[in-house]
Amino acid sequence: MLHFRRRAVPIGVLSAALVLAGVSVILQRTPSAAGPPPTSGHSPAPPTSGPPPRTTQVPAVTPNRAIPGFLDNVSAFSAPVTPGRIRIAGAPFEVRYDFNGGVGRPIADVEGGHELRPLGQNGGALRLVPQGSGLAVAYPDRCTLPRERDCPRAILEGLRDDSLNPGRRSMRYGASVRMTYTDLADGANVLQKGYSVGRVSQYKLQVDHRQGHPSCVVAGSRGGIYRAEPWINVADGQWHDLECRRTLSRLIMLVDGVPRAWVPLPPQLSIANAEPLRIGGKGPAPGNDQFAGAIDDVFITIGD
Predict the structure, then answer these.
(1) pTM given for the model
(2) Alpha-carbon gap, residue 28 to 32, rounded angstroms
(3) Which of 153, 174, 191, 270 could form a disulfide linkage to 243, CB 3.0–4.6 angstroms apart?
(4) Residue 47 above 50 pLDDT?
């Protein structure tokens, strides 16, 4: 127990002290007519006289260069293929497209080369849309018009680039895609170089048919078409990493990093053509196997 010393205080003095204390409390709690009461935890207002308070300079924010939006279509038709002897890539060789440059910059690979041009017909247009911390390419919605030739079409297409010809070398190519059931059709090309008919030679990645099956296709200049197609549906509204691997004796399809299907290949199969790289279809004309959905992180790697 604490012990206090008692002092005798006259009643009159005590009463006066209590009255003064009550007045002080009321004055402290009465709002000022000049403005709202001070907020708890905030410093009092600076005095009106004397130097002004020091302020912190906020650095300017650099605008984000990866601006989404519609890409301007350069042309409705493919550029003429440059004539000349067809060559193959020196190994190893790699191109990658992440589409993160935004609509204000050309569509080029991550090193700034191998530029792609947007092409469109019947009002078909491409958009750069947010994807993770970057951007992806969104293609026109699946067309439901009665005549296919009236449908909007849009793709990305490069110029002739023989450095993308693997010849007989091993290679990897692929992309990330996002599709839904309504995006599916009999043909939906993700990327391709060349054609499988006419002994042109080709490598291609596609998502075909109503089952949403991805598949890898290669065709040699001497004929023969080889296709690896797993029994798996990737048109579920989620992003999926699709990859094709061509080895000396196999064509392998990987989905999200897991091998899902393969077919044997003849070692002598050679892929070399003068056709450009195309992403989203085999051209802007009717019957182009138009892709619907979104594509990101396209890559082609030739050699080990």
Answers:
(1) 0.79
(2) 10
(3) 174
(4) no
